[in-house]
């Protein structure tokens, strides 16, 4: 997203009630920066130093200053001597300053030329906010130049960034707002100031932030304090009651029009029939004493509900029934995430082919810039729609963005961008086509290989055809990894740590099955201090992929000593034999003070020096100039088990006594680390100098309280290969282990024990999720396939998605059914299963 601003430094200071501590120049500001990864034009940028958990803004300011940024808004004292040419605004709270700037910006559009106010739609609820917003954009883009929240920018930070997009060309705004606790919606209402309100529904999301459902509904309704129209479904009694009470409390009976829809009772839009076909639904309703209907290309209940909500908006805007019906029939699914997947010829593909506008293009380019596995970045781009700008101005702006993001190659498709090809002459490689057909005809000559490719196209261009050409054709079983969730989980653990406590993130075993480089790259940006891998070759791959963090190798051996030195990897030393062997290698290579880590055995009895070895070990290390002890560490045996807390404290005492011996004999400081994922939340007193965060990054913690705060990271899905009808008495699968007692329907899905689905989940022990229904495994799990009993479930088709595990079917369930631990399931997912990394 291009976070543009049109304010001077002095104006910003005045708007946010800040103090302009020092101003060496009057800069030409164009961009507001929150995320240091998105820096493009430093000389025209002001950085808002928002606080993040355990994130050192001083370091960020110093780093950005070195990169050319000279304008900063901060809420803490910075050493100005280190930035002699910088301008600083100080405020009490940088987040509130951002919100104040956005609120001021919104007010500039309350009385537009011609005497009208910009209509602003505010959307809130538990689910469906983003879908409703995007569908309204599809339905109304022919009538308005719309500004809207990019993707799901609905938070205390996302909403201000969304509102700051508004400019004088816009004729309609649609913003979504989400909250997680009391007091947040008043802030968002003051920024959005909606004139039209939409309440989608109420669910269980963020329940922990409120006393009950009624309080959550009432808090969300505060977005609508000043709307003239409120659209909602009146079938939920709690919602209807809360809305009526809200209006009475606010004394607003004569100021707001309630436009509700209902299947069960009288309402302005009364739904009288919903008919579902194989791939569409026809909805019939009564509105103003006439019968009207729409047909949508969806059959699920959530899409039907969201479409009816959008229908209400269009009816309230007095759009003709015929136009509404035609537009509703062409609604298309919304993909709300950016996906990174494997492509042909060692390419990586980012598929974002459902929309093309300037803001979503910028978000996609930011995601592309974060991918460093290939030095070459290519963009395949269609005509950009809905801009409200002249083509020359629009494509000049796009060309500027591509230049800032250092794109290597542009493949442009569409008649409008074709006409503007001269604006992209700065690029080394360009190809322009008037249509997708022309691109496909030339595909073999374009020679894709060893590059990361962003596919970004407006829906009408049907860029899914291009995605199919470039995507590697492999297994239909997919493990999807949510990069945002990993970052959020890291933040949750950081909240439990002292600011001085370092973090070693464990990315061994292919990051617990989630993919090594992609995870390491993400957490490197989020400033962890160390990475931990099991074997040297894992560290080598990370170095080759551009990972610069210190890396500890937990299982080195003599055959990998060259790799350790060549790739700056730090070995764990756990025995005298290993120590002697590595010392001889370093001596023969004339290497002094090589960094290494000492493992102590305090009770695990797996690897490590015994307590009685510590004195002689420390003296030997002190006498040798070949080593530099970076850390001393041990491994807790049962940090998750309250019954073993006594033994955990015993281990800690043994470890700390050993560290004292090392400190006394070595005479220099080193990092002490003992605590693992479970220990971070259960034993905060044992943080010491560093903690090792492993499976918790990926959303798994044995501590129930901590688990409730973590986000699901991985979702394993497969598809239905075939559906069979079998008669009572017939058997299913190898060894005829399953016999059906009634006529049954069996779905065979594309996953087996060779993919990592445990064979001991055979014969009803395991379940999968199909069409929101748990269906049992029937018969023995095969090498490549598994059979499911789907008797009684309607509308199942070959090719339908099946969830093996994910947010709605937690990984812990599979582990329990399989009588194992989540680690084993995670790390057992075969490499032949395709990984897709996405950012929401």
Walk me through what this model shows.
The longest helix has 22 residues, at 645-666. Helix 4 (129-140) crosses helix 9 and helix 17 crosses helix 19 (516-525). With 840 residues, the protein is α/β, with parallel strands linked by helices. The strands form 6 sheets. Strands 15, 16, 17, 18, 19, 20, 21, 30, 33, 36, 37 and 38 form a 12-stranded mixed beta sheet that branches. A hairpin with a 5-residue loop joins strand 15 (338-342) and strand 16 (348-352). The two termini are 13 Å apart.
Would you summarize the structure shown here?
This protein is of the alpha/beta class and 840 residues long.
Annotate the secondary structure layout.
Blueprint: H1 9-15, E1 19-22, E2 31-33, E3 45-48, H2 57-66, E4 71-74, E5 87-90, H3 94-107, E6 120-124, H4 129-140, E7 146-148, H5 158-163, E8 172-176, H6 184-192, E9 196-199, H7 213-221, E10 229-233, H8 237-249, E11 257-262, E12 269-276, E13 281-287, E14 290-296, H9 301-316, H10 321-328, E15 338-342, E16 348-352, H11 358-369, E17 377-382, H12 391-404, E18 409-413, H13 415-419, E19 429-433, H14 436-441, H15 443-446, E20 452-456, H16 464-470, E21 478-482, H17 483-494, E22 502-506, H18 508-512, H19 516-525, E23 530-533, H20 536-544, E24 551-553, H21 561-566, E25 570-573, H22 576-588, E26 594-599, H23 614-623, E27 627-633, H24 645-666, E28 671-673, H25 677-682, E29 690-693, H26 704-707, E30 714-726, E31 731-732, E32 738-739, E33 744-749, E34 767-770, E35 773-776, E36 786-789, E37 801-805, H27 811-817, H28 822-827, E38 834-839
Parallel strand pairs: 2-3, 3-4, 4-5, 6-8, 6-9, 7-8, 9-10, 10-11, 11-12, 16-20, 17-18, 17-20, 18-19, 21-38, 22-23, 22-29, 23-24, 24-25, 25-26, 26-27, 27-28
Antiparallel strand pairs: 1-5, 12-13, 13-14, 15-16, 15-38, 21-30, 30-33, 30-37, 31-32, 33-36, 34-35
